[in-house]
């Protein structure tokens, strides 16, 4: 997983509340066996019509938002089913952070496991960011700040999750850091285990 330290980008504004995981990545695209490849299906039913043609009025189809790494959203982002694919699709599309007033718990947790930083800001602060979609935003994970224009906003994050993101560690990476201790334990355990 790539470490997350400081991210500077303009935001892609998704001005909708209660965006659920079925809208983030529809069920028919959950057949892939790896974490990659889901970005093309992000918000698929909103991005494309029944014939697969891009809808010109959807924000991700507007060329001015191409390459932006921050998704700006409204309340209760990531609600619905617990599919981890939603976080995979967001990361695979190119977003490293999602900023919203609130997140569904499972989606929030899945973001951390996959290298996406979910940033909770007060509704008024999110409103401020929505006012100008050309505003450069800086998210500093170590300082737990979001800077935009003349405003600096603070966000809360669990210390352990913060450490994992800063170091670029998922659950497997964290376990591999303890490889020598695990191997030592296994060698000692075999000494005391009864022979079969």
TrEMBL record:
Belongs to the LeuD family. LeuD type 1 subfamily. It catalyses: (2R,3S)-3-isopropylmalate = (2S)-2-isopropylmalate. It comes from Candidatus Nitrososphaera evergladensis SR1. NCBIfam families: leuD, PRK01641.1. Pfam families: Aconitase_C (PF00694). Residues 1-123 form the Aconitase A/isopropylmalate dehydratase small subunit swivel domain. GO terms for molecular function: 3-isopropylmalate dehydratase activity. GO terms for biological process: L-leucine biosynthetic process. Gene3D superfamilies: Aconitase, domain 4 (3.20.19.10). This is 3-isopropylmalate dehydratase. InterPro entries: 3-IsopropMal_deHydase_ssu, Aconitase/3IPM_dehydase_swvl, AconitaseA/IPMdHydase_ssu_swvl, IPMI_Swivel, LeuD.
């Amino acid at each position: 997983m790539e470490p997350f330290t400081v991210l500077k980008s303009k935001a892609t504004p998704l001005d909708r509340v209660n965006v659920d995981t079925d809208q983030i990545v529809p069920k028919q695209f959950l057949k892939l066996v790896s974490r990659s490849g889901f970005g093309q299906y992000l918000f698929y039913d909103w991005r494309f019509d029944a014939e697969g043609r891009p809808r010109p009025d959807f924000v991700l189809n507007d060329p001015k938002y191409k390459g932006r790494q921050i998704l700006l959203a409204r309340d209760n982002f990531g609600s619905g089913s617990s599919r981890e694919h939603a976080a995979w699709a967001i990361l695979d599309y190119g977003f490293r952070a999602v900023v919203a007033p609130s997140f569904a718990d499972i989606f929030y947790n899945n973001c951390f496991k996959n290298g996406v930083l979910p940033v909770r800001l007060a509704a008024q602060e999110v409103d401020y960011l929505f006012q100008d979609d050309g505003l450069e935003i800086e998210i500093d994970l170590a300082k737990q700040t979001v800077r935009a224009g003349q405003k600096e906003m603070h966000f809360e994050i669990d210390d352990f999750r913060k450490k994992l993101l800063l170091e670029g560690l998922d659950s497997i990476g964290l376990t591999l850091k303890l490889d020598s201790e695990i191997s030592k334990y296994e060698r000692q355990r075999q000494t005391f285990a009864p022979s079969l």
